[in-house]
Amino acid sequence: MSVKVDMSLLELDRKRYSNEKIPLFQRYFRLIQETDFLPLRLVYKILFKMAKRINCVELHEKTAIEGGCYFGHPYCITINPETKIGNNVNIHKGVTIGQENRGKRKGTPVIGDEVWIGVNATLVGKIVIGNDVLVAPNSYVNCDIPDHSVVYGNPCVIESRENATQDYINRKIDDYTEMRK
Known about the structure:
Shape: globular
Radius of gyration: 16 Å
C-alpha cells in the first residue's frame, strides 16, 4: 500500500541530493515556482538571477522540470524554457538542451523519467527522450530515443539496454505520481 505524501518539488529535489547541498539556483528556481506571495517571489527571482550567473546556468523560471532533478557539477548548463523534463533526471556540466528553429524537428526536447545526461551532451529539436535513457558524455542527440536505451556519439548511436541508468541515477524519488496526489 502506497502512502500519499504531499511534498514540494524542492523537497523532492533535496531528497536526490541526500547530504550534499542543493545548488542555490535550483533552490530559488523551485521557490519561485512554489511561492504565491508576490514580494517574496520577486526576492527569489533576484536571488535566482544572481545564482544562475555564478554557475553560468541558463534556466528560465517557468521551465517544466518534474521532481527529483539532480544537477551534477552544476556549471555551464543551458536549458531552453520550452523544454519538458521528467522525474529523477540527472543533468551534468556543460549540457545544452536546445531548440531547433526550422525543419521537421522545429521545437524543443521532451525528456522522460530516469534519464541521465552526461557532461557536454547536446539535445536539440522537437525530439522525445524516453524513460530510463542514458545519454553519454559529448553526445549530440537530434532524434527520438526509445525507452531503455543508451545513446552516444555524433551522429548518435542508439543501443537498447534494460536498466540503462542502473547505478547512474541514485536516490530516486519513487512513486512520484502517487506522492504528488
